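Batch job 17 of 40 flagged for manual review because the log was empty.
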Amino acid sequence: MTESNNNTTLIDGQEQWKIYPPYEVFYIEYIKTACLNAIESWEAINKIVSAEKLLKSNAIDIVDLAENIVNQAGIISKYFFPPRNEGQKNLIHKLRGEKLRNAFKIDDTHILKDRTFRDFIEHFDEKLDLFLNKSVAENIIPSKAIYWTSNDINEVTIVFKAYIIKEFKFILMNKEILLPTVVEEIYRVYNQCIEFINNGGRLK
């Protein structure tokens, strides 16, 4: 039986830290690194699309940069929302998630709880199997592609991996992910990490 507060929990009458205070900095640093990686990709995308010369020579790089943002969002999500497996073995992960969500002010409606990001890094191979296991009459573009708007994609075309410049949209296996809202939250989490580090590497 457990009874929790923001910092500790009671397990069979014994008090246990959700995250041992001197180790909080490790979680802060790893989350910060993933956030910074995503932010750098986002800023690189904006640099490319805002310069005609770069857009002509580096446009296709945008697809990889957008994919990296989704990858990093999946990594960040796992810190806050660990697997829901039951049992004592997974309790430490559950408690860590509770502590981090509380410190970063993240609730169950948070965008990073969307399993799209988790599944992207955890089950990509399985999704690829299913995607390629269909008999389709449409045209499939297997390589990376860049479009200005969604209207530029023919309705009988299935896009494997693409970026829509004017809509800030990443497409993978015909699944669309709008990036601005995700990136905005990643910036917020990153700034919170900096605040915690300046506070001695401790979560509030």
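Reviewer: the log was empty due to a logging misconfiguration, but the result itself is present. The CA atoms of residues 10 and 42 lie 42 Å apart. Unflagging and moving on to job 18.
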